[in-house]
Amino acid sequence: MTKFDYDLFVIGAGSGGVRAARIAAQHGAKVAVAEEYRVGGTCVIRGCVPKKLFVYASHYAEAFEDAVNFGWTTEKVAFDWPTLVANKDKEIDRLNKAYIRNLEGAGAELIMARAAFEDRYTIALSDGRRVSAKYVLIATGATPFVPLHLPGREFAITSNEAFHLESLPQRICIVGGGYIAVEFAGIFNNLGVETVLIHRGEKILRGFDEDLRDHLTNEMKKKGIEFRLSCDVARIERSGTGVRVTCNDDAVFGAGQIMYATGRIPNVLGLELEKIGVELTPHYAVKVDDYSRSSVDNIYAVGDVTNRLNLTPVAIREGHAFADTVFGGRDIKVDHTNVPTAVFSQPEIGTVGMTEAQARAASPTIDIYKTSFRPMRHTITGRDERMLMKLVVDGGTDKVLGCHIVGPDAGEMAQLLGIAVKMGATKADFDATMALHPTAAEELVTMRQKWTG
């Protein structure tokens, strides 16, 4: 008879925690999962899924405009924000129930309570219970961050609140330059909200290929989004039903809302990790090894709380690998290289592999193949939008090191390109692949001229 109540106790029922719990239970472990809010985590409840639904909704603004040139009549088209929010909520409810059903169907117990450590094997629950586990997995994700010392920070919203606004503002100020900032800028702008994006950096999307950063900025400007780069907010004040924003360059303007999207911080507050000696990084993430094990050998962590690569599929892979390693008798490390990713900006970004700068730092000879063109449908609509495709190739081995796309369905293409890059495909392999015509993706296998600009 075991001295523990559970073989595995998971704190947090997001994508990584749920996957780990399900796989561990399937391996025969006795598993419990604690969640204080809803099952599904940031991605399902207040992240990727509702955001993508909002992106779809915002696309219709241009789609209805473009339809006229294809012979459609659209005089009676109208948009209703509360309908979108209500239908989004219905879908989140469905997914929440599905996650619960799948978790319990695998044999794991779900405990709707907040959890914190009492010691390395004991968990204190907010319902007053104490439970013990041989292994504990921290999968609490990350949470939006608004600077603590910003005057008027209480007047700012984050992406959490943006999904539940009672009505759309006439004007919104979005602070930040990462995924969330540029995605919500596109959403609000296309839904008819005057949109200003403030970013303290010189360019948006730090860490992405420079050509992608520049191209997306130009395309977003064409759509009417105002950029204030190398700028930061000095203070926020209430002004009527909206806000008054003062920047560090002394610019002052009003808005109906100000939304902060300046990053997310690991959600470790209240876990009492200091009691048990779990080491954190300087940015308050749980420090883990290649097997997701923390500095306390029976405590593991996966997903955004580790701040390794903060993407939902990565959290899922980490959770699965943890369960297979600890409970399935397998030795699995997660490979965090060449992970494809998309930014659901407007236009969309899809990318995998090295940026040009990264490749040049790693290899003595780099070849660049690049093209920009108008997507076929805009030859009819007349819309001034251009697509960008770029291949980064090792000049010595001919291996394709990076693929970068801005334009319609870029994320879908990046997922498939991820297979080729992961397998080590060469530019010759791309060249030998027959083009599929007429598609935008055919450009990826027909680019022959090296970029010399």
Kindly summarize this structure in a few lines.
This protein folds into three domains: 6-143 and 265-327, FAD/NAD(P)-binding domain (3-Layer(bba) Sandwich), CATH 3.50.50; 153-262, FAD/NAD(P)-binding domain (3-Layer(bba) Sandwich), CATH 3.50.50.60; 341-446, Enolase-like, domain 1. The chain contains 14 helices and 21 strands.
Description:
By secondary structure, this protein is an alpha/beta fold. The protein has three domains: 6-143 and 265-327, FAD/NAD(P)-binding domain (3-Layer(bba) Sandwich); 153-262, FAD/NAD(P)-binding domain, CATH 3.50.50.60; 341-446, Enolase-like, domain 1, CATH 3.30.390. It has helices at residues 15-26, 41-46, 48-67, 81-105, 159-162, 179-190, 210-222, 273-276, 312-327, 356-362, 378-381, 410-423, 427-432, 443-446, and strands at 6-11, 31-34, 109-111, 115-119, 122-125, 130-138, 142-144, 171-175, 194-199, 226-229, 233-239, 242-247, 252-255, 257-260, 264-266, 299-301, 341-343, 349-353, 366-373, 387-394, 400-406. It starts with 5 loop residues before the first strand and ends in a 7-residue tail after the last helix.
